């Protein structure tokens, strides 16, 4: 073989071109192969190759949107103000990838989104399917579980059928199946939603705010595998209750899309959010304890811990309380939970009889209008949004603004440590 230095120019060019193609192929294959590995490899896709990054799904939600002003309706895609930019001094002009970039993707920066529901509640699937389509989210459905399909021998140790109704064991198992799937398929993270889920129409900006706070609280490096940071077990992206048990949190004061106290449908919320200084503030908590499971996210490690300590352990509680107890440290195992308040995802009850609402128990048979726990509901605005509107309307007259651009993003906040949390935030009676 002729040494390269002596080779004719044409051969050199051929070798160079072949080598480039091979390198390109290796890079492409490497980028595609992340499905199978739970190892949190840091992948850097710097500026020039960014067109190959996953496309942002929702045209009207630019992933680089940064809208610090509450009344700005023009948070343009080309905005040069990017608080999360990560300039690389070694190569001027080449901007490193925004660590929050992937929150703009079709799985909200998680590896998968699993949606749990009974295939015979086709009505609920219709609603979630159209909502996901509006939001540019890709869901994978997983079948709900009926108690009749679980042999009593397979119930968790400690489960008391005198206290728990049979729908609760079905719900518990359906979530455990989704969690088992994360471990089985080695997903680095996944969000799990239920079929009555609803979310704020400006959820991308809220999720970026959540991730910014979560990263600050974790002390994340600039580059992480997950846009939410790499040191968490569970994220309460949604819920019907939230509090913190740690006195350090991330807060944006006077954030206008926070639901006012009189309209909170949550079972409980952080008492600190009612103190004058924090009224109208948006929080991200480390040591978050939530309840209800319309939407939450797990890391691979978090999912493994749940199978180990909840499924293989003793469980007297419903799935949501079991998760709350893990987060509250009641099981004496390290389990890091972060949460946003107000929650970004919550529940939706479509117009009709309350009997239709839940698979867990029968509601009031009386008719009720379409109701949601979130302020600028995707579901309530669905008609408007499929008609091409780029804004959503608030449910309540107290909200200011009444109309929110879909690409609204809350201003960034700051880390605060208080001397002591209010008494109610510290009591643990709700998750014994
Ligand atoms: C979205 O981003 C996450 C985090 O980088 C990644 O794991 C996931 O594969 C992405 N989803 C899609 C559909 O590209
Ligand atoms: C929040 O807004 C109120 C009224 O506009 C103002 O008095 C207060 O100082 C603001 N709080 C913070 C922490 O910025
Ligand atoms: C839908 O959008 C069209 C075009 O903007 C508008 O003329 C029409 O009034 C809208 N319809 C509804 C029901 O919002």
From TrEMBL:
Xref: InterPro entries: Collagen_mod_GT25 (IPR050757), Glyco_trans_25 (IPR002654)
Residue numbers spanned by region Disordered: 41-100, 407-432
The keyword Membrane appears for this protein: yes
The organism's taxonomic lineage, starting at the top: Eukaryota, Fungi, Dikarya, Ascomycota, Pezizomycotina
Keywords: Glycosyltransferase, Membrane, Transferase, Transmembrane, Transmembrane helix
Entry's family note: Belongs to the glycosyltransferase 25 family.
Bias type Low complexity, positions: 46-77
Domain of life according to the entry: Eukaryota
Protein name according to UniProt: LPS glycosyltransferase
GO molecular function: transferase activity
Acidic residues compositional bias, start-end: 420-432
TM region(s), chain numbering: 12-30
């Amino acid at each position: 073989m002729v040494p390269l230095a002596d080779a004719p120019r044409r051969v050199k060019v051929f070798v160079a071109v072949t080598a480039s193609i091979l390198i390109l192929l290796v890079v492409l294959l490497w980028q595609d192969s992340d499905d199978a590995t739970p190892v949190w490899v840091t992948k850097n896709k710097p500026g020039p190759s960014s067109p190959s990054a996953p496309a942002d799904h929702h045209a009207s939600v630019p992933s680089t949107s940064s809208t610090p002003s509450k009344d700005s309706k023009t948070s343009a895609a080309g905005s040069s103000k990017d608080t999360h930019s990560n300039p690389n001094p070694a190569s001027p002009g080449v901007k490193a990838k925004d660590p929050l970039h992937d929150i703009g993707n079709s799985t909200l920066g998680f590896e998968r989104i699993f949606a749990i529901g009974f295939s015979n509640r086709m009505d609920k699937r219709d609603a979630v399917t159209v909502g996901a389509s509006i939001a540019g989210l890709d869901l994978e459905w997983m079948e709900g579980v009926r108690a009749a399909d679980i042999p009593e021998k397979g119930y968790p140790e400690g489960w008391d059928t005198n206290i728990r109704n049979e729908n609760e064991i079905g719900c518990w198992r359906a979530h455990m199946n989704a969690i088992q799937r994360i471990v089985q398929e080695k997903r680095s993270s996944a969000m799990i939603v239920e079929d009555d889920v609803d979310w704020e129409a400006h959820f991308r900006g809220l999720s970026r705010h959540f991730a910014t706070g979560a990263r600050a609280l974790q002390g994340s490096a600039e580059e992480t595998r997950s846009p939410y940071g790499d040191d968490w077990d569970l994220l309460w992206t949604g819920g019907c209750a939230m509090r913190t048990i740690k006195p350090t949190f991330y807060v944006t004061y006077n954030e206008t899309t926070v639901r006012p106290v009189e309209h909170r449908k949550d079972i409980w919320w952080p008492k600190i959010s009612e103190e004058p200084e924090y009224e109208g503030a948006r929080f991200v908590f480390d040591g978050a304890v939530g309840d209800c499971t319309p939407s939450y996210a797990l890391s691979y490690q978090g999912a493994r811990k749940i199978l180990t300590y909840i499924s293989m352990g003793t469980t007297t509680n419903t799935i949501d309380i079991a998760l709350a107890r893990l987060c509250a440290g009641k099981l004496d195992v390290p389990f890091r939970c972060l949460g946003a308040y107000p929650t970004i995802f919550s529940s939706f009850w479509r117009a009709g009889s309350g009997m239709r609402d839940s698979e867990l128990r029968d509601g009031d048979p009386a008719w009720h209008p379409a109701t949601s726990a979130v302020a600028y509901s995707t579901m309530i605005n669905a008609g408007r949004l499929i008609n091409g509107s780029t804004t959503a309307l608030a449910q309540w007259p107290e909200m200011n603004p009444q109309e929110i651009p879909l690409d609204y993003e809350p201003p960034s906040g700051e880390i605060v440590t208080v001397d002591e949390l209010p008494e109610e935030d510290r009591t643990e009676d709700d998750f014994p």
